[in-house]
Amino acid sequence: MTTAKNIMADNASFEKLEFTDNPAIRDRRDHYLDVTVDTAKVLKSWQSSLYAFEWMLPDGRMKSRDELSETEQTKYDAALEKIQSGQKLEKPVLGIGLIENIEIGSGRALFLLLAAAGIANIPAHIPKSNEDEFKQFLS
Fold first, then answer.
1. What pLDDT shows up at residue 98?
2. Nearest-angstrom CA–CA distance, 29 and 33
3. How far apart are CA 32 and CA 22, in angstroms?
4. Which domain holds residue 40?
5. What pLDDT does residue 115 have?
6. In three state form, how does the secondary structure of the chain look?
7. Which of 35, 90, 109, 118 has the fewest CB atoms in 10 Å of its CB?
8. Residues 91, 19 contacting (CB under 8 angstroms)
9. Number of domains in the chain
10. What is the pLDDT of residue 6?
11. What is the pLDDT of residues 47-84, one digit of tens each?
Protein backbone atom coordinates (compact mmCIF):
# COMPACT_ATOMS: atom_id res chain seq x y z
CA MET A 1 0.00 0.00 0.00
CA THR A 2 1.24 3.49 -0.84
CA THR A 3 1.28 5.87 2.10
CA ALA A 4 2.22 9.53 2.29
CA LYS A 5 5.48 8.63 4.04
CA ASN A 6 6.34 6.05 1.32
CA ILE A 7 5.69 8.65 -1.36
CA MET A 8 8.07 11.09 0.24
CA ALA A 9 10.78 8.47 0.59
CA ASP A 10 10.28 7.06 -2.91
CA ASN A 11 9.66 10.23 -4.87
CA ALA A 12 12.52 12.72 -5.25
CA SER A 13 10.08 15.12 -6.90
CA PHE A 14 8.79 16.05 -3.43
CA GLU A 15 11.83 18.28 -3.19
CA LYS A 16 10.89 19.91 -6.49
CA LEU A 17 7.21 20.58 -5.93
CA GLU A 18 5.90 23.43 -8.02
CA PHE A 19 2.82 25.39 -7.05
CA THR A 20 0.45 27.52 -9.03
CA ASP A 21 -2.47 29.77 -8.14
CA ASN A 22 -5.63 28.04 -7.04
CA PRO A 23 -8.50 28.63 -9.50
CA ALA A 24 -10.80 29.35 -6.53
CA ILE A 25 -9.17 32.77 -6.15
CA ARG A 26 -8.66 33.58 -9.85
CA ASP A 27 -11.41 36.20 -10.10
CA ARG A 28 -10.47 37.70 -6.72
CA ARG A 29 -6.68 37.59 -6.93
CA ASP A 30 -6.31 41.09 -5.49
CA HIS A 31 -8.03 39.94 -2.27
CA TYR A 32 -5.41 37.26 -1.48
CA LEU A 33 -1.80 37.07 -0.39
CA ASP A 34 0.69 34.33 -1.22
CA VAL A 35 2.41 33.01 1.89
CA THR A 36 4.31 29.96 3.05
CA VAL A 37 2.90 28.45 6.21
CA ASP A 38 4.40 26.29 8.92
CA THR A 39 2.54 23.03 8.39
CA ALA A 40 2.69 21.87 12.03
CA LYS A 41 1.28 25.17 13.32
CA VAL A 42 -1.54 25.10 10.77
CA LEU A 43 -2.43 21.50 11.66
CA LYS A 44 -2.49 22.28 15.38
CA SER A 45 -4.95 25.10 14.75
CA TRP A 46 -6.96 23.16 12.17
CA GLN A 47 -7.45 20.36 14.70
CA SER A 48 -10.22 22.57 16.18
CA SER A 49 -12.05 22.67 12.84
CA LEU A 50 -15.44 21.03 12.46
CA TYR A 51 -13.95 19.20 9.47
CA ALA A 52 -10.77 17.91 11.11
CA PHE A 53 -12.43 14.59 11.99
CA GLU A 54 -12.42 13.71 8.29
CA TRP A 55 -8.61 13.55 8.20
CA MET A 56 -7.44 13.56 11.83
CA LEU A 57 -7.82 11.24 14.75
CA PRO A 58 -8.91 12.75 18.09
CA ASP A 59 -5.30 12.74 19.33
CA GLY A 60 -4.18 14.91 16.38
CA ARG A 61 -2.56 12.21 14.26
CA MET A 62 -3.38 12.13 10.57
CA LYS A 63 -5.54 9.26 9.40
CA SER A 64 -4.11 6.79 6.93
CA ARG A 65 -5.77 6.53 3.53
CA ASP A 66 -7.66 3.42 4.67
CA GLU A 67 -9.11 5.30 7.64
CA LEU A 68 -10.59 8.03 5.45
CA SER A 69 -14.16 7.94 4.15
CA GLU A 70 -14.64 6.89 0.53
CA THR A 71 -15.18 10.51 -0.47
CA GLU A 72 -11.95 11.62 1.19
CA GLN A 73 -10.07 8.62 -0.23
CA THR A 74 -11.05 9.82 -3.71
CA LYS A 75 -9.67 13.28 -2.91
CA TYR A 76 -6.53 11.72 -1.42
CA ASP A 77 -6.00 9.64 -4.56
CA ALA A 78 -6.46 12.66 -6.84
CA ALA A 79 -3.95 14.70 -4.82
CA LEU A 80 -1.52 11.78 -4.80
CA GLU A 81 -1.81 11.41 -8.58
CA LYS A 82 -0.96 15.09 -9.06
CA ILE A 83 2.12 14.77 -6.87
CA GLN A 84 3.34 11.55 -8.44
CA SER A 85 2.84 12.80 -11.98
CA GLY A 86 4.87 15.95 -11.31
CA GLN A 87 2.01 18.31 -12.11
CA LYS A 88 2.02 21.83 -10.76
CA LEU A 89 0.02 21.82 -7.55
CA GLU A 90 -2.67 24.36 -6.77
CA LYS A 91 -1.88 26.32 -3.63
CA PRO A 92 -4.38 25.58 -0.87
CA VAL A 93 -6.63 28.43 0.25
CA LEU A 94 -6.57 29.01 4.01
CA GLY A 95 -8.70 31.25 6.17
CA ILE A 96 -9.73 31.92 9.74
CA GLY A 97 -12.79 30.05 11.01
CA LEU A 98 -15.57 31.10 13.36
CA ILE A 99 -13.70 29.92 16.43
CA GLU A 100 -10.55 31.71 15.22
CA ASN A 101 -8.83 28.55 14.08
CA ILE A 102 -7.32 27.89 10.67
CA GLU A 103 -9.69 26.50 8.07
CA ILE A 104 -8.43 24.82 4.92
CA GLY A 105 -10.71 25.60 2.02
CA SER A 106 -9.90 24.66 -1.54
CA GLY A 107 -6.96 22.26 -1.70
CA ARG A 108 -7.56 20.58 1.65
CA ALA A 109 -6.68 17.06 0.48
CA LEU A 110 -3.44 18.24 -1.11
CA PHE A 111 -2.43 20.23 1.97
CA LEU A 112 -3.15 17.32 4.30
CA LEU A 113 -1.42 14.76 2.09
CA LEU A 114 1.69 16.95 1.97
CA ALA A 115 1.47 17.39 5.74
CA ALA A 116 1.18 13.64 6.25
CA ALA A 117 4.25 13.18 4.04
CA GLY A 118 6.25 15.43 6.34
CA ILE A 119 6.42 18.60 4.24
CA ALA A 120 7.24 21.28 6.84
CA ASN A 121 6.30 24.39 4.86
CA ILE A 122 3.56 24.71 2.26
CA PRO A 123 2.74 27.67 -0.01
CA ALA A 124 -0.85 28.88 0.33
CA HIS A 125 -3.22 31.72 -0.38
CA ILE A 126 -4.75 33.66 2.52
CA PRO A 127 -7.26 36.50 2.46
CA LYS A 128 -5.59 39.91 2.82
CA SER A 129 -8.15 40.62 5.54
CA ASN A 130 -6.62 37.80 7.64
CA GLU A 131 -2.99 38.89 7.26
CA ASP A 132 -2.51 39.80 10.93
CA GLU A 133 -4.13 36.58 12.21
CA PHE A 134 -1.79 34.50 10.03
CA LYS A 135 1.50 35.99 11.21
CA GLN A 136 1.89 33.29 13.85
CA PHE A 137 1.42 30.54 11.21
CA LEU A 138 3.98 31.72 8.65
CA SER A 139 7.25 29.89 8.18
1. 85
2. 8
3. 11
4. 4-137
5. 93
6. CCCHHHHHHHCHHHHHCCEECCHHHHHHHHHEEEEEEEHHHHHHHHCCCCCHHHCECCCCCECCHHHCCHHHHHHHHHHHHHHHCCCCEECCEEEECCCCCEEECCCHHHHHHHHHCCCCEEEEEEEHHHHHHHHHHEC
7. 118
8. yes
9. 1
10. 52
11. 999 999 999 998 889 999 999 999 999 999 999 999 98
What is the C-alpha to C-alpha distance for residues 126 and 32, in angstroms, rounded to an integer? Answer: 5
Q: Which residues of the chain have pLDDT under 50?
A: 1-2, 11-12
Q: Are strands 32-38 and 121-127 parallel, antiparallel or unpaired?
A: antiparallel
CA dihedral (7, 14, 134, 138) in degrees, to 10, reads: 120
Q: Is the CA virtual torsion 40, 97, 108, 121 positive or negative?
A: negative
CA atoms lying within 13 Å on the CB side of residue 123: 14
Give the contacts of 76 (CB within 8 A, at least 6 positions apart). 65, 68, 109, 113
